[in-house]
Amino acid sequence: MTDNTINKASSNPFVRVGRIIKKYGNEPEVLAYKAEQALHIKQHGFPSFPKFLHIEITNACNLDCVMCPRHDMKRKVGFMPMELFKKIIDQVPKGSKIAISLNLFGESFLHPKLYEMIKYAKQSNVGEVHLNSNITIINEHKARAILESGIDVLALSFEGTNKKTYEYLRIGSNFERVEENIKLILRIQKELNAFNTRLNIQMTDMKETHEEIKQFVEKWKPYLAGNNGILIKQYDTWAGQVEDRSVTHETFARAPCPVLNENMTIYWNGDATICCRDCFGIQTLSNVNDTPIKEIWAGEKYNKLREHNNKLEFNKIPLCAPCDDWHKWPTEVIIKKDDLFEHKTVMVGMDGVVK
């Protein structure tokens, strides 16, 4: 199947409806919500509530990675209070089955309430909970706690197959320790039979790691079990905020970005912005401590930005103007246990789920 065929299939409404029915056929509340959202999208161009919430529970981090814009971040470093987290989750419509990511510009394992937050979100039955970690501070207790929390997807970020590459990119980390931490959490997952959690061993394809991709896949495939996978991410520049380390530099005709119609990002202090690439708060709209999420989402400021996006007036959206990452959203390379490795492109939604 070609990339073009995949893209056509994924945009076919009958295909999408079939997938929804197959996935949620036994959950009438979810099907009703999805049908309601389909009508709202047809009428307004976007759903009545975000499909994906990025919740930055902390922007504290123990590393200084070369591909992250965080080292230039001027926002105050802090930790989201549990009360605010609950306030956010309580606003997510029941049966919506949205995707909720609990990280942004920090290492979420540093948050003392991480496991409590995951459990609260899962008990609220609002959707899938995702987390991306540099996996540096994992120990046996934390590995068990995260797997017992009910988290749906945990990405284990590990750039490269050798100490020199990894420690050059992940400043402040230790190659051997992180490698052992990944093996530790894979072992404990097996002991607990916690395969409801999908573990993705993740590597970013960039000029420093590109020649190591095949070796990376060969190294970690024997450790895969259940629905776990190896995820090869495309490099992005965080909307032009870091050096472009991409291997290839393709040129695309600019098109409206889907993020403004599907995602909302909330910082640890409650400030809401339009995109998870907004490290510096360039497009902050309002604060969820004061304004309900739905009001922000359907508000005048958000809709004006959507209008500029749809008209390709990116110069009127400061965060979007320099961005060349918008076209990378729908494609990643993911390898499962029984896959033959090749550089194939598959559709991965913004919720991280393979379509």
Structure description:
It contains 12 helices and 13 strands. The chain is an alpha/beta fold. The strands form 2 sheets. The chain has an 11-stranded mixed beta sheet with strand order 11-10-9-1-3-4-5-7-8-12-13. The radius of gyration is 20 Å and the shape is globular. 38% of the residues are buried.
List its traits.
single chain; 355 residues; alpha/beta; 11-stranded mixed β-sheet; two-stranded antiparallel ribbon; 13 strands; disordered C terminus
Brief rundown of the structure:
By secondary structure, this protein is α/β, with parallel strands linked by helices. The protein has helices spanning 3-11, 13-24, 28-44, 82-89, 114-123, 140-148, 163-169, 175-192, 213-220, 259-262, 293-297, 300-310, and strands spanning 52-55, 64-65, 98-101, 127-133, 153-157, 170-171, 198-205, 229-234, 263-266, 271-273, 286-287, 331-336, 346-347. The strands form 2 sheets. An 11-stranded mixed β-sheet has the order 11-10-9-1-3-4-5-7-8-12-13. Strands 2-6 form a two-stranded antiparallel ribbon.
